[in-house]
Every structure is written in C-alpha cells, then in structure tokens.
Write a structure and sequence with these properties.
Layout (H helix, E strand, L loop, with lengths): L2 H18 L8 E7 L9 H17 L8 E7 L4 H14 L4 E4 L3 H15 L3 E3 L16 E3 L4 H14 L4 E7 L4 H14 L3 E8 L7 H7 L6 E5 L2 H14 L6 E3 L6 H7 L8 E6 L4 H14 L8 H18 L4 H12 L4 E3 L4 H9 L4 E5 L2 E2 L11 E8 L2 E8 L2
Helix pairs in contact: 2-10, 2-11, 3-4, 5-6, 8-9, 11-12, 11-13
Amino acid sequence: MSFRKQALLGATSILAAAMAASTANAADVKVGILFDVTGPIANFIPPMLDSVTLATEEVNAGGGLLGGRMVSVIGDTTGSSQGAVDAANKLVNIENAAAIVGALMSGTTIAAANSVIVPTGIMQISPTATSPEMTNFADNDWVFRVVPSDAYQGQVLAKLTMDQGVKKVALTYANNDYAAPLAKAFADHYKSLGGTITAEVKHEEKQPSYTTELATLSKGGPEALVIIAYAGDSGLTLVKEALENGLFKRFIGTDGLRDNLLIEKIGAEHLKDSFFTSPSSPKSEAADKFQQLYAAKFQSTKDKIFIGQVYDSVILAALAIQQAGGTDREKVRDALREVANPPGESVGPGDWAKALELIKAGTDIDYTGATGSMDFDDKGDVAGVIGHFVVEGTGYKEVGLVTP
C-alpha cells in the first residue's frame, strides 16, 4: 500500500474514531477542529490530528476546561470550499463549539470564515492558512492564525532562491487562494532583487497533464522551476512530467509542495538539488518541550509538518475559553490576546495545569508556543519564521531559518 493510501486511510480512521468519541456530557466543552482531512493535503493530516489528541489529553489530565472535559469535535472540509462551509456550519450550529481551530488550507479557511465564522460570530484560529488576503479580511476580529502570511513567505523564498545562486527561473502556480498571492509576492520580490522570470504560467488544479504548460515554462533557459501548488494536487504531476520530458531538473517550492508524497513518487535522487520553504519555529525551550511531549506519545516528530502549529492553536483556544470563564463566544474571542500576548507570566507546552491555576488566581499569562511567540497583532496575525528545507534520505531536513 502506498504512503498516500496509508495516510488517507489513517486520516479517515482517525476522523471516524474522533467523531465516535465526541459525544459530550453537559459539563464538557467542545472545540471544533475544522480540518481538511480528505482532499489534496490528506498526507499531512494524521500527525496533525495526533497533535489535537496531545493537546486535548494535556488539558483533561491537567485539570480540564471550565471544570469539565475538553472535547475536540472533528469536521472534515474535504478540501473544498463547500465542504468547509458545511463542516463549519455543523461544528458551530449543531455541535455548538465554543471556538474553532482550522481550517488548514487558505481556501477552505476563507470559505468557512465568510459563510459561517464571521456571520455567526465565533473565534477561528487557523494553524496553517497563509493567504495574504486574511490580513485585511473584514472579519470583525473573529479570524486568527499562528503562521506568517505568504506575503512574507514569498519574499523569503525569493531571497533564498537568489542566495542559492539561482538567477533565472520559470514560475507556475495553482489558481487558488493559497498559490496565487504567494506567487505574486515571490515574483515581485525576486525581480526586485535582480532575478529573471523567463515564463509565468497560472495553471488549473486537478488536470491529468501539464505538458503544454511545461513546454511554455521551459523556454528562455530557466535554471529551475518554481512550483507553488499542493503536491497532492497539481504539484506532483508537474514535477513528474517535467522530469520525464527532460524539461527541468531542479524544483523550488513552498510548504504545499513539501510533502512526503513527492519523495515517494519522484525519488530523493531526483530532488537532491531542489529546495523548499515552510513556516517553522525558532529554537527555544518551548519548542524542545513540545518535541519531547509529542515524541513520547507518537514516537517521532520527523517529517510531520505543522504539528507544532496545530498544538499551539488547540491550546490557545482552550486557554481563551478558560480565561473567558465560559463559552460566550465574544468573551472567548476577546480573551485570546489576553492569554497570548504580553504582559503575563510565561507558560508554554506542557504547562496546562500551571496555566489553569494562574488563570483561576486572576494572574495574567503569556503563552509562548511550540512554534514561537503567539503575539497576535490587530489583524489576527503573528510574526512567525520561515525555514529552508532540502530532501535528505526519505524525508526533508531543515537547514536553516530565512529572513527576507
């Protein structure tokens, strides 16, 4: 069985188990987990759901939430806008969740926010949605995220590409809310640094072949192909066909392409000169503690993308609910910055019991997460950091952090 099939089956079985276990009693507090369990990023999901489990179990073992249990209720967007709206509607209006963690893809996050989150009025924290559109989104301060905007990642990718000595590239990007703005940020900054884009092609998702697009992209002598897309959708096909037709040997991508599926299907030997960027975390005691907690329960953190961001998002949602003293959604939203931003006594991964006692005592807290500072600005964004990744063996290795 392929890794992708195993991942999809694993995600589906975890979803079924989570939904079966989500029957709550009157004292339980529900947090909605709006994840793209099936769809183009299905490979990423099982370890992320493990992070949900880790955070939920920590809360319940450390004194619970509002005097009862915390219950994480899973909703699957199916990786589509309509699926996101349907799943969010169920979590908010049927499950009566006190807060929402998710979605993961920018498109599903924005769709749920537009149709359900903002009209209803409930706090939404995305662990991974990076679209620049979200920064100035008219959300009445209901929508937050714990990763930097792709306006920033695009600049970082441009600088890294130039620093790697790649002065001339072709660029293709998927026609979606994630890829299009990221590609623009990359292209604008790359050209401002003196780089040349020989061809730029927007492509549609889910096509069986991209040979026509690749033929256009290969003209003009580019040194590499920049692909901003999900590997589980168009990304894999583009790389595969580019290699099969001898059009490109080097590929540059972002977190959507940094998927084990790519290595499994293409082979590490064909990706040895490629590199990728992805939201990451600075070295810190909080990061080390999370790594220890996760590995103790789930063996390893290797090649498990965004697990720290998911953990931080779930813990932040729980802290906000506890700080609010109830499930009133407006109070929960307003409490988020109280627990995430300074001033306050520092708490981090593994500190739920300590944080609970501090909140009960009326002491301000300041949560520093597995992935860095969680200080939300007035747009609901955090600063975040971007990592530089290469293929090594059967996985990806972070070789440094990058700033524009």
